Amino acid sequence: MLDTLTFLLEKLFILAHIKLSSLLPLLGGEPPLSKRCDRDEIPPQPAEASQKFQRGDLLEVPRTLFTHFGIYLGDNRVAHLIPDILPVLTADRTQIQAMVTNTRLLLGVLSKRASIRVDSVEDFAYGAGILLNAMDRTMPQSPLRGEEVAVRAERLVGTISYSLLWNNCEHFVTFCRYGTAQSQQTDKFCEWLKSLIRDQRCVLLTALLGVLSMACLGISFSTALPSLLIPFTLWMAS
Predict the structure, then answer these.
(1) Out of 20, 128, 162, 178, which residue is the most buried by the measure of CB atoms under 10 Å away?
(2) Cβ–Cβ under 8 Å, residues 212 and 198
(3) Residues with catalytic annotation?
(4) For residues 116, 117, 121 and 125, what is the CA-based torsion angle, rounded to 10 degrees?
């Protein structure tokens, strides 16, 4: 049961931070060409290049399906927000400062608890390349001064509440660097979800699945109600 729950939470965590570039055609187009090209032209930096980073820089670590964000504090240190259950369970700083395992991370997602912590650039990047201040080209706000960005990040270090969509690592770095907490990944996910709800083919699909469930499991209150309610709700929302 725990393995199943862990698997489902892992997929949900990935989905909430997913890059939706492959789904952009469903949204009716692609992002502006200039912004997309500018961002793609920024070469990833290896973690060993931290001597090039300036205090207050925004670091992005692109993963296969999501991106992790942090604020560079200087001296090879990065502040970043990551789901973590351990600060709720113990006050032992040695245990808490150890690298966050997948189990700690997933239980943090489940309990909606996270920590804003300081790690080395190498631990933060976890073997991936780093994009430097790439979000400066896509955010409407101008970045704050580097020292102010770093001070904002340092003041927030500690345990914090967590939400996959509404309070994640991207909200943390945008608040520190641009003065407003927002997530472009969340915005893209919500736009994709909106387009999915508006697609009337989903009504037909859910209606068909409802008929199949009643054919396989029999007609009862538990099968008939969702078979009628879900397609009706999608139809009214489309």
Answers:
(1) 162
(2) no
(3) 68, 80, 169
(4) -60
Question: How far, in Å, are 79, 200, 219 from residue 214 at the CA level?
Answer: 52, 22, 5
Q: Which residue has tokens 């997309």?
A: 36
Give phi and psi for 140, each to the nearest 5.
Answer: -70, -25
Q: Which pTM does this prediction carry?
A: 0.70
Q: Are 132 and 45 in contact (CB under 8 A)?
A: yes
Phi, psi angles (nearest 5°) of residue 60:
-120, 135
Pick from 203, 132, 207, 228: which is nearest to 173 by CA? 132
C-alpha–C-alpha distance, residues 195 and 204, integer Å: 15
pLDDT in tens, 170-207: 999 999 999 999 988 888 888 888 888 788 788 888 88
Q: Token pair for residue 111? A: 């309990």
Query: What is the spatial distance between Cα 209 and Cα 214, in angstroms, rounded to a whole number?
Result: 9
- Sheet of 158-161, strands arranged across: 131-132, 58-62, 67-74, 77-83, 113-120, 158-161
Q: What would you report as the CA-atom Rg of the chain, rounded to the nearest whole angstrom?
A: 21
Q: Which amino acid belongs to residue 58?
A: L
| pLDDT tens per residue across span 69-109 | 999 999 999 999 999 999 888 888 888 888 888 899 889 99
Which among 203, 211, 207 is positioned nearest to 237, based on CA atoms?
A: 203
Token pair in block for residue 117: 């912590």
Task: Please check whether residue 200 is in contact with residue 238, taking contact to mean a CB–CB distance below 8 angstroms.
Answer: yes
Determine which helix (DSSP H) or strand (DSSP E) holds 78, and give its type and residue range: strand 77-83
